[in-house]
Design brief:
single chain; alpha/beta; globular
């Protein structure tokens, strides 16, 4: 049975958002039963009503510097003093009811970070065309390199749906500006000897629009994060 919220540590859900006016409201409503506070990190470059809708929902909204998702997550980490941080995307592809599965191992002291694994739970987003197939293959290559280097068995090193203790997040000195921050976060946890677990979680196809992640555009950034953190 899923718990509504942990009683041991404050849970803050962070929703990075860039032009997600069609889904931000439902995502906020979905996460509320499973956290103590919701923080929307609005991209400075966002030009639609995402911020207005989030504020109407009476949640905390901060605006990043418009440098990318990674920079937005760093802003959120600096804003949250303690407890457990849960990151979830604003496009409606993640399942809020799985938040307790991510939080519980941290609250019970069994993990420092827990990743929602699309490779264990399935993904509708990583199938359908050549670019998505290549993204999935590239993700598996990264996981292979990470596991080989650190003696781990993590299948999904990159999913943005994850929980991490605020203390651990602040210790990582993250630097990525874009979506490669999840890979950096995973590898730096291993480098610091932190405990990383993953749980199955199904990724739904985003309800509106298309993912902005393109291998041709972001592949080098991912490769650089892997190479620099293998050392």
């Amino acid at each position: 049975m899923l718990m509504a919220k942990t009683q041991k540590q404050k849970v803050t859900v962070v929703i990075p958002a860039f032009n997600e006016e069609k889904t931000i409201g439902s995502v906020i409503d979905g996460v509320r039963p499973f956290c103590d506070e919701t923080l929307v990190v609005l991209s400075k470059r966002s030009s639609d009503a995402t911020g207005k809708i989030a504020k109407a929902k009476k949640v905390k909204v901060i605006v990043d510097n418009g440098l990318g998702k990674g920079e937005g997550l760093r802003c959120a980490i600096s804003e949250i003093p303690d407890g457990v941080i849960v990151f979830i995307d604003a496009d409606g592809s993640h399942i809020p009811e799985h938040i307790p599965l991510l939080v519980e191992p941290i609250a019970l002291g069994r993990a420092d970070m827990v990743i929602a694994s699309r490779f264990l739970g399935g993904s509708e987003e990583l199938h359908g065309d050549l670019d998505k197939f290549l993204r999935m293959f590239f993700s598996q290559c990264i996981a292979f390199a990470v596991n080989l280097r650190f003696g781990a068995e993590i299948q999904d090193t990159q999913n943005g749906f994850r929980a991490i203790s605020a203390k651990a997040a602040k210790s990582l000195n993250l630097s990525s500006r874009h979506t490669e921050i999840e890979t950096e976060m995973t590898m730096k946890c291993f480098k610091k000897g932190l405990r990383v677990l993953e749980v199955p979680s199904h990724e739904r196809k985003r309800k509106f629009g298309e993912s902005s992640i393109r291998l041709s555009r972001h592949g080098l950034a991912y490769a650089w994060q892997v190479l620099r953190n293998l050392i």
